[in-house]
């Protein structure tokens, strides 16, 4: 029998490292270890009841069939309403695409637009799926390191220098996974000024963490900050993070109708349409009462404050205060070179994360996975009691180093 050979296009990529680490930690947990998993990027809250009820009503009405392939008309109208209400952006229904998660929106956009060798500029640290998706589509990820000193944000000059005749897209993700860094409207304006000088470059704004933004900072998105970019911007968002709906799999994007139509072709030959029941739930999420979004955000903010303070009290660690999302991205450079009680020398952030998991039962993700070392990401979308215990263990782990 001939063994399985994977296709060329998937050889350079692998299963999401974050999911792999989370699965491994969960397996240890099932085996009886008291592991605290701070890996996964999903809110610990339940989906609000009004949203669940909307899904039940849809089921009772018999809404169990295929919908329009890139979103039911009701769902598209809900997305249209959301963009108008929250972002001051006006889109026609044929400028809106709904998929099984923001991830599929991004995937469809790349499948619909990338030719072999096309470059996609990805400011790092970045959500790793971006690079893998670009590669599946035959494109070339161009990673631009954004240091902590620059607030993990892309500098306009850095962007200008990276644009080539092959550049197809620039991705912007604010607030960011993994750094939590967000752009103010003024900071974004400087980036959009560069892009105005390069009319062939498209912008993908991943706004999935829009509603998880702290300290009163106003959310800004490129198409609203610079209307001149509207004709080449895809604004991506979804219900996963804002409404604790990761398992429902609904995301959406809005942009020029020709791109949206090409994305619909891709979707028609892969998933056909997002789940009808999930779309009914998402309509309620986007058009129903919004107060829960702010309530949950303030609870995330309390957790952020706790985790940042705890990490900054820990010998060898240093954590910038993130503006949004539910992650901290702390430097562990101060522990590198040191030895664990078991005599192992820590050389990299991956070594450090391995030590935390093996010896202290805390699962976090190394910065290397996100393209910037030596850092580690904590997802603090978990109960405060768990965070207290986890931070105490991380402290003990660092204090035990020699
Ligand atoms: N973008 C970013 C930056 C994310 O962190 C995630 C989820 N981890 C997504 C997109 C995808 O979200 P979903 O597919 O659940 O809508």
From TrEMBL:
Keywords per UniProt: Aminotransferase, Pyridoxal phosphate, Transferase
Pfam family, one: Aminotran_1_2
EC number: 2.6.1.-
Gene3D superfamilies: Aspartate Aminotransferase, domain 1, Type I PLP-dependent aspartate aminotransferase-like (Major domain)
A GO term, aspect molecular function: transaminase activity
InterPro entries, A to Z: Aminotransferase_I/II_large (IPR004839), AspAT/PAT-like (IPR050596), NHTrfase_class1_PyrdxlP-BS (IPR004838), PyrdxlP-dep_Trfase (IPR015424), PyrdxlP-dep_Trfase_major (IPR015421), PyrdxlP-dep_Trfase_small (IPR015422)
Transmembrane residue ranges: none
Cofactor(s) annotated in UniProt: pyridoxal 5'-phosphate
GO terms (BP aspect): amino acid metabolic process
PROSITE patterns noted in UniProt: AA_TRANSFER_CLASS_1
Entries under CDD domains matching the protein: AAT_like
Aminotransferase class I/classII large domain segment(s): 34-394
Assigned protein family: Belongs to the class-I pyridoxal-phosphate-dependent aminotransferase family.
Name listed for the protein in its UniProt record: Aminotransferase
Native source organism of the sequence: Albidiferax ferrireducens (strain ATCC BAA-621 / DSM 15236 / T118)
